[in-house]
Design a protein that fits this description.
With about 375 residues, the chain is α/β, with parallel strands linked by helices. It has 2 domains: about 5-120, NAD(P)-binding Rossmann-like Domain (Rossmann fold), CATH 3.40.50.720; about 130-310 and about 340-360, Dihydrodipicolinate Reductase, domain 2, CATH 3.30.360.10. The chain is built from 12 helices and 17 strands. It has helices at about 15-25, 40-50, 60-65, 80-90, 105-120, 130-140, 165-170, 175, 180, 185-195, 315-325, 335-355, and strands spanning about 5-10, 30-35, 55, 70-75, 95, 120-125, 150-155, 205-215, 220-225, 230, 240-250, 255-260, 270-275, 280, 285, 295-300, 360. The strands form 3 sheets. The protein has a 9-stranded mixed beta sheet, covered by helices on one side. The chain has a 6-stranded parallel beta sheet with strand order 3-2-1-4-5-6. α5 (about 105-120) links the parallel β5 and β6 (about 120-125). α4 (about 80-90) packs parallel to α5, α5 packs antiparallel against α12 (about 335-355) and α10 packs across α12. The N and C termini lie far apart (about 45 Å). About 45% of the residues are buried.
């Protein structure tokens, strides 16, 4: 009988529930250990998932050495992703890295070097690449439904605030860095994904110009869309909640991406793609493949309309990664590819300082 790949889930926050569930459902893997800064948090996650007889740790170094660990899931707050990834790579483990991958270009460079030296497989959790609507749209693009792409736009609109358990770290410059990095990286990755013409191809950015603004920075009042109320005396965002970037890609596609933490509304993730034979607006298609079309063709699919991690297609992502490991091939969403996405938030920060376009890549 084939030995299953053992998984260590490091970090016991919200997203770890989905990592555990996905790997437990995959026929080739099993969760053999859970670790967290607090042992009780690791125990709670294991009990919730019905895991018995596994390793529970409050020490990451010991957890990595647990017998049978082949894959490490880095589910800690973003300021720990770099050191956690480097340690896993140096131990020869394949790695699932939650986004954003790191808080500085120097950290990213060290992560890349460690992964390349260890020759381990990686995947970064830009999980929307496995969203059913995204998969359908990407397949239509590859099938020439809208022709040659010349323009794409994605937006991450979400009232990030105290309702989120990770807000205290995310709201600070020292640990969250910026809105475009903390949450907007999802929209950047989607923009790259839809600007790429091939079925599993993301476009390479070559230049960016960005602006930042909004109104929430420094305010102690915040909106909570879950209760449709405003709350007072709340910890403030330390950076601007609105960022807008124009991006030129290597294939000459022009892109616009924004992140908006200041919006008074529920979570939305708009997508628009324009080609010389058709257009996409969210789940609506106008295409030369529909002769005599008199109205938008609507795709009845699962939309990227919730920030709840249980709504996200982690099963598809993890199944893909396991397949990559077993077949000894790289994921289209590995660390090297994710670095191209993360270039953009850091280039935007440079742009704010200089007022000039920034050439990419930075690394």
């Amino acid at each position: 009988m084939e030995r299953k790949l053992g998984v260590l889930v490091h970090g016991a926050g919200w997203v770890s529930t989905q990592h555990i569930s996905a790997f437990e459902k995959n026929p080739h893997t099993k969760v053999v250990a859970v670790s967290s800064r607090k042992l009780e948090s690791a125990r709670k996650r294991a009990e919730e998932a019905g895991l018995e007889g596994i390793g529970l740790y409050d020490n990451y170094e010991r957890a990595i050495q647990h017998e049978g660990v082949d894959i490490v899931c880095v589910c800690t707050p973003q300021q720990y992703h770099a050191e956690n990834t480097i340690a896993a790579a140096q131990s020869g483990k394949h790695i699932v890295i939650e986004k954003p991958i790191a808080n500085s270009l120097d950290e990213i460079r060290k992560m890349r070097d460690a992964v390349h030296q260890a020759k381990v497989k990686t995947i970064v959790s830009f999980v929307l690449r496995w969203n059913p609507l995204f998969q359908t749209l990407k397949a239509l693009i590859a099938d020439d439904a809208i022709g040659k792409i010349y323009m794409a736009e994605t937006d991450y609109q979400h009232d990030i605030a105290g309702w989120w358990s990770g807000y205290e770290d995310a709201r600070k410059v020292s640990t969250g860095v910026s809105a475009l990095l903390t949450g907007g990286c999802h929209a950047i990755d989607a923009l790259r994904w839809f600007a790429g013409q091939g079925r599993f191809q993301a476009a390479r950015p070559v230049e960016i110009f960005a602006y930042r603004g909004g109104y929430r920075k420094g305010l102690t009042t915040e909106y909570d869309h879950y209760t449709n109320t405003w709350k007072e005396n709340c910890p403030p965002l330390e950076y601007d909640g609105l960022e807008v970037a124009l991006i030129k890609f290597e294939n000459n596609v022009l892109g616009k991406v924004s992140v908006n933490y200041d919006c008074v509304q529920p979570y939305t993730f708009p997508v628009e793609v324009f080609g010389d034979k058709g257009s996409i607006k969210d789940n609506r298609i106008w295409s030369h493949k529909f002769p005599g079309q008199k109205g938008w063709v609507t795709i009845p699919s699962i939309m990227p309309e919730s920030a709840d991690v249980s709504h996200h297609p982690f099963q598809g992502q993890m199944d893909h990664f396991v397949e990559c490991i077993l077949q000894d091939r790289e994921s289209h969403c590995n660390l090297d590819d994710a670095i191209l996405t993360h270039d953009i938030p850091f280039a935007a920060l440079q742009c704010y300082e200089t007022g000039q376009p920034v050439k990419l890549p930075l690394l």
